[in-house]
Structure formats: C-alpha cells, structure tokens
Structure prediction request, 163 residues.
Amino acid sequence: MQKKNIWIIFVATTVVLLALDLWLKAWAVENLQGQAARVLVPGVLGLTYHENPGAFFGFLGGVDGARWILAVLKIVILGGLVWYYGRLPLEKRFWFMRVPILLIFAGGLGNLFDRIAFGFVRDMLDFLFMNFAIFNLADVYVTAGVFALMFVTLFIVKDFPFP
Prediction:
C-alpha cells in the first residue's frame, strides 16, 4: 500500500465515523432532550440525554476554564495520533494498529467538536444493568480503539514500533 492511500483511508474513515457520531448527538438533542429515558434493550441499554461539561465521568466538570484546558489537551493528543499513524510502517501487520488509531482519532474529534461548539459533550447511551456514566458513540470509538490497540500491541504486533 502506498503512503497516499493510508491518508485517503484515514480521512474517509474519520469523516464517516464523525458523521455518525454527530448525527446521533443531533438526533439525541432533537428527540431526547427534556424527555423521559427510552429503553432500547430492556434491562441492558437505554437512551437518556445528558450534557457532560467535564472529561471522562464528568472529571473537571465544575472547573472554570476546563472546556479550553480539555480542548487543548485533546488537540495535542489528536495531533500525536496523526503523527504516529503517518509514521507506522506500511507492512500489513501494522494495519492492526492503524484501525484502533482511527477509532480513537474519530472519537476524540467528535467529542472535541462538542466541547468547542457547546462547552460540553452530548451523551445519550445508558447501560441500564449497572450504574454507569451516560456516554456517546465517540466514547465507544475511543474505548474500543484503546482496548483494541492494547490487545494488538500485546498479542499481535509485539515489536511495538515507535518511530
């Protein structure tokens, strides 16, 4: 695969994943805000609109300036992901690292958009079987990407490349 193609895949995947996340967030504002929770899968998953002004689990939610501190931190992390993605070797086995990086990037970008545009992140997914934070599709991307990246670096690409 050529270097140009990895960037086409990066941009196309990011656009699709970001569009899905932003669409679901807009749908949640339109259909869930001020409404009672909706059950998708009884006892498992529901939809509840929530605005999270902080980071994960509301961390730093009440701190003045947290919006911008978190935005700058996220921009630095996203820049690091792009830098690392572009420097991974083109060998096929490193695609197992590229996919999780794409997920983390798209999720981070979705939540960064919310944080800058609204001052909070729009959440709507709610696990009904446990007392857990309400989250969004971007959070799913980031969480799945982080766990996949850990799995890949531990069990598939054991000679973790650091360019």
Q: What stands out?
A: The chain has four helices and three strands.
